[in-house]
Amino acid sequence: MIWRNWKNSLASLVFVRVPTAYHMKSSRSHIWKKVFNGLAIPYLLISIWLLFLYPGGYLSHIDRLGRYEGGFHVHLIPFDTIIAYGKDLINPINPGDLKEAIINLFGNIALFIPLGFLIPFWGKWPDLKPRRLLWFAALCLGVELFQYGLGVGNFDIDDVILNIIGLWIGAQIYFFLERKIGLAPTLSPQQAE
């Protein structure tokens, strides 16, 4: 009698509970997909506004003739601006320098973390290969060139570096959550090629 009940319990566990757990994970990933897709549109609109239209940015320094009062610059020396802002974080000469350093260093990273999360989420990437990092770099380079081409900002290679760091952090958060709670079914490495 005990043996029969134990076998029935084991069969119940294997044949009933496992499909239910799978269904719950699938249902949960569907909910996460709706949540992240719903948050993506406001995030993208805010990002476009901050990157290209923000009134406190370069557009507020345009004179009546449409010229930027400070002039536009191209910074191609890697880590030059990052080091300068790092020094301002440690020993700011005036409070404005500290605020500008925090906004530039952490803002360039933080703005791209959600996008770094969403790209592998939408693409169902199983991992982050080096060629995908090159794709991140091309995206950041494109944003920086677009800003410069529109006349709304300087071209700074350090901004590209900080944006790539933000994308990488976002992707790592996605892969961590995917392993822990199963956000969405991912493609196998062969399918993702």
Terminal-residue CA separation:
54 Å
Number of H- or I-type helical stretches: 7
Strand order of the largest sheet: 1-2
The succession of helices and strands, N to C, reads HEHHHHEHH
Helix content: over 70%
| 3D shape | elongated
- Computed structural class: mainly alpha
Describe what this molecule looks like in 3D.
- There is one protein chain.
- The chain has about 190 residues and is an all-alpha fold.
- About 75% of the residues lie in helices and about 0% in strands.
- It has helices at about 1-55, 80-90, 95-110, 115-125, 130-150, 155-180, 190; strands at about 75, 155.
- Strands 1-2 form a two-stranded parallel sheet.
Helix and strand topology:
Blueprint: H1 2-53, E1 74-75, H2 80-90, H3 95-110, H4 113-123, H5 130-150, E2 155-156, H6 157-181, H7 189-192
Parallel strand pairs: 1-2
Outline of the structure:
With 193 residues, this protein is mostly helical.
